[in-house]
Design brief:
With about 400 residues, the chain is α/β, with parallel strands linked by helices. The protein contains twelve helices and 14 strands. The strands form four sheets. Strands 1-2-4-3-5-13 form a six-stranded mixed sheet.
Length: about 400
């Protein structure tokens, strides 16, 4: 049956590559992926999936489903298709979406015989306000038996870890004054922001090594001869767990309050993007994916151990169902994600071929989960244990 899955994916290779190229050539920022969402949903309907658009009133999101008459596990594939500002698809989301859709189409060729349900979640804005966060909060993954996606990269890498993250905005308000004639009449909001940075820099040495705090000043005044009465900083606060991230956030908020007290400013804080939880890789499911790579000729020594690559909204999915996020080699040169070099190479034929290969590996892994009850139970047992531990 895996041969049938692979042959089905091969038979649609030209279509899948054309759509990937189209999305790559027409990059759209998060929650603006109108063209990509349209092409992807039309393709899924072409293959017989029932498509719901604008899930949770998110305009460019979708949920596509094919349910066999024969009962069985529910498999979820994640589709991402947002681009980066100025860089376009330098994270390879034009490949990710077609990896998942290709896998779903391949699996559909046998699902009526083996039983089960296939879902493709169209999840906009992974780079910022990732749609997986509200989808997970709404319980849309609670009945999923296995959730999968793969990420393009310059090497093979097992599904690993990610950082939990909060995105916090600090707004300081003071009082304007002439910076030369009457500076003593002013309350300097920019000084508060600078003090915030200094306090956070001092805090870093007291934090665990997996914590990350980094920020920018988005507004710091209008003219050098006016005491700034309004200044804004935005920070990402991250760590290897949600619990520790919450702890670090409390400390950062104290730094912010201290800066306000020292300068006489008032402070307002808010979350300017969604909070992401850490990825809890299901090792049993990950090992199953790796076995399919081995069977396809990828040597174990060519697959690196899982690493931390920042933050993913897939982490929020992983606390609701067993989840994996492996990295797949699509280019030969060692270029990192979010670079022009990676973007350009990820549009070449080699990357598109790797996209098709990855779709086969995802679909084969899903087939194993559906057809092996003992494997499915082991995946569930590990998931339950990991949730209890966290």
């Amino acid at each position: 049956m895996k041969q049938t899955i692979h042959a089905t994916i091969d038979s649609h290779t030209a279509r899948f590559k054309e759509i990937s190229r189209f999305i790559g050539d027409n990059p759209e920022l998060g929650h603006e992926e109108v063209l990509a969402s349209k092409r992807l949903t039309e393709e899924l309907e072409y293959h017989g999936f029932v498509v719901e658009r604008a899930i949770l009133d998110i305009p460019t999101s979708f949920l596509a489903t094919y349910q066999s008459a024969k009962p069985g596990p529910t498999i979820a594939f994640m589709a991402e298709y947002d681009a980066l500002p100025e860089l376009g698809h330098a994270c390879g989301h034009h490949l990710i979406c077609m990896m998942s859709i290709g896998a779903a189409v391949g699996l559909k060729s046998v699902i009526d015989e083996i039983g089960g349900t296939i879902r493709i979640y169209g999840t906009p804005a992974e780079e910022t306000k990732g749609a997986k966060v509200p989808m997970a909060a709404a319980g849309l993954f609670n009945d999923v038996d296995a959730a999968m996606m793969a990420h393009p990269y310059y090497t093979y890498e097992q599904s690993g870890e990610s950082l939990a993250m909060d995105a916090i905005q600090f707004e300081y308000s003071g009082k304007p004054a002439h910076a030369a004639a009457s500076p003593y009449e002013g309350i300097n909001a920019l000084d508060a922001v600078i003090q915030l940075f200094n306090s956070i820099n001092a805090l870093r040495q007291q934090l665990k090594s997996h914590a990350r705090i980094h920020g920018i000043i988005t507004e710091g005044g209008k003219a050098a001869n006016i005491i700034p009465d309004y200044a804004v900083a935005q920070f990402y606060v991250r760590s290897g767990s949600r619990a520790y991230t919450d702890e670090v956030v409390r400390k950062v908020l104290d730094c912010a309050k201290g800066a306000a007290l020292q300068t006489g400013c008032t402070l307002q804080t808010s979350n300017y993007e969604y909070s992401y939880d850490e990825l809890l890789t299901n090792r049993t499911l990950s090992d199953t994916f790796n076995r399919n790579l081995y069977e396809a000729g990828i040597r174990p020594e060519d697959i690196q151990s899982g690493k931390d690559h920042g933050s993913l909204d897939l982490g929020n999915v992983s606390i609701h169902c067993p989840t994996i996020h492996p990295y797949m080699k699509v280019i030969d040169a060692k270029h990192l994600l979010h670079t022009k070099e990676f973007r350009d190479l990820a549009m070449e034929e080699q990357a598109l071929d790797a996209m098709i290969f990855t779709a086969k590996m995802l679909a084969s892994t899903a087939y194993d989960v559906i057809t092996d009850p003992d494997l499915l139970q082991a995946i569930k047992d590990e998931f339950n244990s990991s949730i209890q531990a966290n």
